Amino acid sequence: xxxxxxxxxxxxxxxxxxPLTTGPLRYVSTFERKVGGAELNFAIGCSRLGVxxxxxxxxxxxxxxxxxxxxARGEGVQMSHVEFVEGHPTSVNFKEIRExxxxxxxxxxxxxxxxxxxxxxxxxxxxxxxxxxxxxGVFMAxxxxxxxxxxxxxxxxxxxxVTVSFxxxxxxxxxxxxxxxxxxxxxxxxxxxxxxxxxxxxLLLGYSDQDSxxxxxxxxxxxxxVIKDGANGSHLYSDGKWVTAxxxxxxxxxxxxxxxxxxxAYIYTSLQNLPASERLRVANGAGxxxxxxxxxxxxxxxxxxxxxxxxxxxxxxx
Length: 318
Prior knowledge:
The chain is of the alpha/beta class.
């Protein structure tokens, strides 16, 4: 039997307080407790699609930490690289959702548990049996030491023959664009798959036209350079050509987590060696489904659900 593909990711997780009413946060008085975090969302998205997925993290040794641990374990995410630590409270954020489905996030993650990581804790053994190592800019934005840690990990991954995927996932409330550019410059030579939004790559590189992005991709020997453009669909530069896939029409309720769902589905299709156009199409479908449900990861689809949606191409309202 063929070896089952396996994905690894690293990052912080948070308790997300979802507003029960829309509008500016200062007028919202009731919230519902959820679990969030870009890298954890990605891990859950992969797991729901049937991918063997492991998550590396640290959680506060508190009630919120146990909520996150139990939730992720219940979603089938492998938790052998997750530990509880003292003196570092589990991170929290509050979401603001406007009437059109757009939103903002307010972070409270100073002294995050992931700050207890050290480079010395990680060796090439971490990547034994791993096919894809997925990283996100969110983890690096939390603290400068995480930039050095990620640089160490991507080097180990490449030495181990592991594909590295990267979502810049800019969080300019956590660091400046200059800091992000400097950090990402260290990473581009190690990246095989880029999964970025159109606006954020414009901020990072100063351009977003396809000719310039193709040149950048070729210079850094990036295998797949993927542009996520919301309702305008997505684009992929690979093997010297661009491929485009249209977005699926949905009525968005909450756009948070859509990019993570897209990433998970794209990596799933890459592991299945699907054609470029189909990789985009499946990822577009996953991203669309996430927006139809309130919450960071509640809308991440299972494989059967995603297949039904893509094949029917119908508008989902729920």
